[in-house]
Every structure is written in structure tokens, then in C-alpha cells.
Specification:
The complex is a heterodimer.
Chain A lengths: L1 H27 L23 E3 L16 H5 L5 E4 L27 E5 L8 H5 L5 E3 L14 E3 H23 L9
Antiparallel strand pairs in A: 1-4, 2-3, 3-5
Chain B lengths: L8 H5 L9 E5 L11 E7 L2 E8 L7 H7 L6 H7 L4 H16 L5 H29 L4 H21 L8 E2 L2 E2 L5 H26 L2 H7 L7 H7 L3 H5 L7 H4 L20 H25 L20 E8 L4 E8 L7 E5 L1 H7 L1 H4 L5 H10 L4 H5 L1
Antiparallel strand pairs in B: 1-2, 2-3, 4-5, 6-7, 7-8
Helix pairs in contact in B: 3-4, 4-5, 5-6, 5-12, 5-15, 6-7, 7-12
The chains are: A alpha+beta, B mainly alpha.
Chain lengths: ~190, ~375
């Protein structure tokens, strides 16, 4: 009786082995799912929300929409955004007898806008709370660096480089098609 | 009592060391079956465990104290890091607690979005557990199948949340982004796809003799033991305790859907395994119903709190059902912009604490199976 049971359990084990091999064989015949990374990349990174970057004004793409309200720097849980404002305009003291000059408008665009991506936790609170939509997520996935300084970004320089690249891409197209009316301002 | 405690856990509890017949070893903090930095001191007699004690706190990150130093909004990204596998349930627990305290209404569509994404996240958490548990028991290929399916979920959840693991998606009064048509269409295709995969999981693993021998009758937890240690989630339901926060204290819109709470009486590692697989099916059922009835509307309430907002004075407790059990947030507000006290109830902590008692007298190899069947996420236990 015990021998019979031993035999039965061995057969059962063999059968479950066969079932497992059947699944393995079926999957083996299917096309490969993984991507050979450096030679190929995945195509679903458009929805990825990486580190933030500045959004330029529609007419001056190199100047950010930012009004230095400091909301993003305040709301950031890890304090990774640092913004430098331009100093307030100096008002020259009015000379005797002259009327006081109208106050010059304070410059609202930031002097510097730096991101320390080392401490960023990608929560998106800065982008969500920006009142003028001057921040957006980049899709930089393939980031690699050897020092902390590699992840400290000067976002103003990044925006300027992006604007330049866009202008360069546009320029040859415009040269061939000729300047169209209505697009001269851009 | 006034004496200053000296020495570490070992010298206080296991000194003066092993006897002639026994051997004391450390399982972890770098043991692969502990899924993180968990150290278990085990006293062995041959292959049998005489006693064992988990030593915690290697990845303690002061999440509760951080809650007392950051503003309500700034604490949101912390929640995705407490339990990285079911991040959205923790998101929900924190947002739900603040909403309950301040009486914020969540729009209908946002409720549906929360249910859809949280259940999807629960499936991905269970799939990862499934693969990792079987990896603990010595089978390598199932985790690759699990990751194949999990990859689809992560691609889907990346559309609204923007990230793949530590989601920070929920906001007070709703969620941070609306669901796109691509997400809804992808989810609609995913539900029958995963249903079609589950029979393969059953053939490959659940019915396999080797797995059954490693799980059946191993690590028996009585319902009384689970109650004594406050175990929740699949651990309690595998021991015959019919308790699911979604059913016991229905929050949000869970009472509108037709689904079952899987409960098994056996109380062994196999029943905990089967409960989790059944929960995947139930989550698919909830997703299917929510997809069919999702209304249009706002994804965040009109008067949702601004970053510098402060809730009224008071205290509240809000619990949700996570993949590992009951996730609770106890929140005390003194009317300022930062919480006065935040207490996070991590289900893994209670589930692990019964291990020391349940593992007495079992084989060391079975202890690995029991530990895996608890579905531990160490960062959640240590917080």
C-alpha cells in the first residue's frame, strides 16, 4: 500500500513537471518581450514625468513665463528649487524742484532658477501649484552621472538651449518656404 | 527600571549565548528572503527553530516625525515611500484622513479614479509578491511571468501618475490628473488579458507539487493568534477572519460594487497564497464595474486646499485596505499648517510580530516560507 502511494505521488510530481514544461514551451515560442537597451529604447516615456523644466513665453521662447512668486520653492517638500530674483529697481532721488519720477516696473523674470534634482521626489506639487504654468515635466529618463553636481540643473540655461534648438530647427524650414506673414513675430 | 539599557538586542535577549545543543544565527539583515533589511535572530536545535526574534529599524526614516515638521501638502510624497508596492493605498490613507478632518468632499469621478488606480496598484503589488515568494521557495521563472504582467500595469499607471513605483498621485479633494482615454482603453484591454493569464499561473505554480509541499500545512496561524497580534489583510483572511476594511468600514464608493472578500479557514501558507490570488480576481471585478460606470466630471474638488492651507483643530483616524492589510492614519491637528501628530499604522508591522510565536518549532526552511507568505515590505514596517 505504501509502495503504491509512493508510486502515485511520484507520478503526480512527474505530471506537474510536464504541465510546467508545457507552459515554459508555449512561452518559449512567443516573441521576445524585453528590449536590448542601448541599441533599442522603449517608446512609452512620453507619459513619464521626470525633473521639472521651465516653459518659455510664447513670443520669447528663451524667457520663462515665471513671475518669481516663489510658490514652487515654498511648496517643495525637499526644498530643491532655488530662485534668484532681480534686485528691485533703484529709484533715483528726485532733484529739487523736479517731480518724482514714476517708479520703474520691477523685473519679474527670475535672474536664476536652479533645481537640485538629487533631493527631488517627483511629487509634482510645484508644477501643479504654479499660477502661470511656467513649469512642466521633462521626459529625461536615461539620466546618469558620476557626481552630485551632474544633477544640479540651471533651468534658465536649459530653457535658452531649448529655445535655440527650436529656432535652429525652424530656420532652415523657413529659409526654404520663405517667411510667411503672421509668423514674423516668433 | 532606572538602569540604562546597554548592549544591542542580541546581548539583552539572547545572552549568555547558545547552549551546548543549540546554535544562534542571524537571518539577515542581508538575507534574500527578508526582502530588505530585516534581521531575525534564530536559535536553532539542528534544523529546528527553538525561538526567534525579528530585529527591526534598519530602514527607519522617521516618517511620522516628518509629518510633524512638514505641511499637510508637503507630506504627500512621503506616503509613496512608506510602502512602495502599494503606494496608492497609503496616498489614499493620508488624503482620506485630511479630508475627513476638514470635511472636504471628493467629486464622484475622483472617487472612481481612486478606486481604479488603487485596485490596479493592489494587483501589481500582489503580482510582485507572488513572484518574489516563489523565488524564495526556489523557483526562478514565475517572477519573470509576474513582471511581464506587472510591466503592463506600470505602463498604465504611468499615464496618470507620471511615475512607475513611488506614486504621489492623490491630492486633498481628488487626484492630481484626470484619467486619459489611453489609460481607460488600456485598462479595458488589461482586465481580460490578466484573467486569461491566471489559469497559466495556476497550472505553472499553484498546482505544482513542489509548491504545495512547501506551503500546505506550513506556518499555521490560528485566528486567535492573528487577533492577538492585530494581523490584518490576507494573513488574517487566510486564517478564517472575515475582515476587510473595504467591507467592514466601507470608505469611498466600495459599497457600490459587487465583489467578495475571499476567506479561507486553513490558516497555512497555502491559504494565504490562495487568498492573494483570489484578491487579484476580485480587484479585476471591481475595476471592471468601475470602468463601466465611471462618470464624467471634476477630478479634483473646486475648493481643494491650497499649499498653505491649515485644517481646523481636531483629531481623526482613517483606515483603508492595503495589499498587506489595514493601513491607518491617526492625525491630530492643532489648527496650524503642520500636523501636531501623525501616527501611521503599518499592517506589515503587526503581521510580522506574530512570526516569532508562529515560527517556534518549525524547520528553518519552513520559516523562510512563512516569512514570505506574510508579504513583508520592510520600509513599511520600519517607517
Amino acid at each position: 500500500m505504501t509502495l503504491f502511494k509512493e508510486f502515485q505521488s511520484a507520478l503526480k510530481g512527474l505530471w506537474s513537471l510536464a504541465v510546467g514544461l508545457k507552459v515554459t514551451g508555449r512561452e518559449f515560442a512567443r516573441p521576445q518581450l524585453t528590449v536590448h537597451y542601448p541599441r533599442k529604447v522603449v517608446d512609452n516615456i512620453v507619459t513619464y514625468r521626470g525633473h521639472i523644466e521651465l516653459v518659455g513665453k510664447p513670443k520669447e521662447p528663451a524667457v520663462p513665463k515665471c513671475i518669481t512668486c516663489m510658490m514652487c520653492a515654498t511648496v517643495c517638500p525637499s526644498g530643491c528649487i532655488s530662485i534668484k530674483k532681480f534686485p528691485p529697481p533703484k529709484v533715483a532721488p528726485a532733484a529739487e524742484g523736479e517731480e518724482a519720477k514714476p517708479k520703474a516696473k520691477p523685473v519679474k523674470t527670475p535672474k536664476a532658477f536652479n533645481l537640485n534634482y538629487n533631493t527631488c521626489s517627483l511629487c509634482g506639487l510645484c508644477v501643479q501649484n504654479c499660477p502661470v504654468d511656467s513649469l512642466r515635466f521633462s521626459t529625461d529618463v536615461y539620466l546618469a552621472g558620476v557626481s552630485r553636481a551632474d544633477f544640479e540643473y540651471d533651468l534658465m540655461a536649459r530653457l535658452a538651449a531649448q529655445a535655440e534648438a527650436v529656432a535652429k530647427a525652424k530656420a532652415p524650414a523657413e529659409a526654404t518656404a520663405g517667411a510667411k506673414p503672421g509668423e514674423g513675430g516668433e | 527600571m532606572s538602569e540604562i539599557q546597554t548592549g544591542d538586542y542580541y546581548t539583552r535577549h539572547f545572552s549568555p549565548g547558545p547552549s551546548d545543543d543549540t546554535l544562534i544565527i542571524n537571518m539577515g539583515p542581508q538575507h534574500p528572503s527578508t526582502h530588505g533589511v530585516l534581521r531575525i535572530i534564530v536559535e536553532l536545535d539542528g534544523e529546528y527553530i527553538l525561538r526567534c526574534e525579528p530585529v527591526l529599524g534598519y530602514v527607519h526614516r522617521m516618517h511620522e516625525h516628518m509629518g510633524e515638521t512638514k505641511s499637510y501638502t508637503q507630506y504627500l510624497p512621503n506616503m509613496g515611500r512608506v510602502d512602495y508596492l502599494h503606494a496608492l493605498a497609503w496616498n489614499w490613507a493620508w488624503c482620506g484622513a485630511v479630508e475627513k478632518l476638514a470635511g472636504i468632499e471628493v467629486p464622484e469621478r475622483a472617487q472612481y479614479i481612486r478606486v481604479l488606480t488603487t485596485e490596479l496598484n493592489r494587483i501589481s503589488s500582489h503580482l510582485l509578491w507572488w513572484g518574489a515568494y516563489i523565488l524564495d521557495l526556489g523557483a526562478f521563472s514565475p517572477i519573470l511571468y509576474a513582471f511581464q504582467d506587472r510591466e503592463i500595469i506600470m505602463d498604465l499607471l504611468q499615464i496618470p501618475t507620471g511615475s512607475r513605483l513611488t506614486y504621489c498621485y492623490f491630492r486633498f479633494g481628488g487626484v492630481s490628473a484626470d484619467l486619459s482615454d489611453a489609460f481607460l482603453a488600456g485598462l479595458k484591454d488589461f482586465v481580460p488579458y490578466l484573467r486569461g493569464r491566471l489559469p497559466m499561473y495556476r497550472d505553472l505554480v499553484t498546482d505544482n507539487v513542489i509548491l504545495r509541499k512547501r506551503c500546505e500545512g506550513i506556518g499555521h496561524f490560528s485566528p486567535e493568534l492573528c487577533r492577538r497580534y492585530g494581523a490584518t489583510g490576507p494573513v488574517a483572511r487566510g486564517s478564517g477572519i472575515d475582515y476587510d476594511v473595504r467591507r467592514a468600514e466601507p470608505y469611498s464608493i466600495y459599497d457600490r460594487f459587487d465583489w467578495e472578500v475571499p476567506v479561507l479557514e486553513a490558516g497555512d501558507a497555502m491559504s494565504r497564497y490562495l487568498i492573494r490570488l483570489a484578491e487579484i480576481e476580485q480587484s479585476l471585478k471591481i475595476i471592471e464595474q468601475a470602468l463601466a460606470t465611471i462618470p464624467s466630471g471634476d477630478f479634483i474638488a473646486k475648493g481643494a486646499p491650497k499649499p498653505k492651507w491649515a485644517p481646523p483643530r481636531g483629531e481623526t483616524y482613517f483606515a483603508v485596505e492595503g495589499a498587506r492589510g489595514k493601513i491607518g492614519v491617526w492625525l491630530v491637528s492643532d489648527g496650524t499648517k503642520t500636523p501636531y501628530r501623525v501616527k501611521l499604522r503599518a499592517p506589515g508591522y503587526c503581521n510580522l510580530s506574530l512570526f516569532a510565536e508562529a515560527a517556534q518549532g518549525v524547520l528553518l526552511a519552513d520559516a523562510v516560507s512563512i516569512l514570505g507568505s506574510l508579504d513583508l515590505v520592510i520600509p513599511e514596517i520600519d517607517r
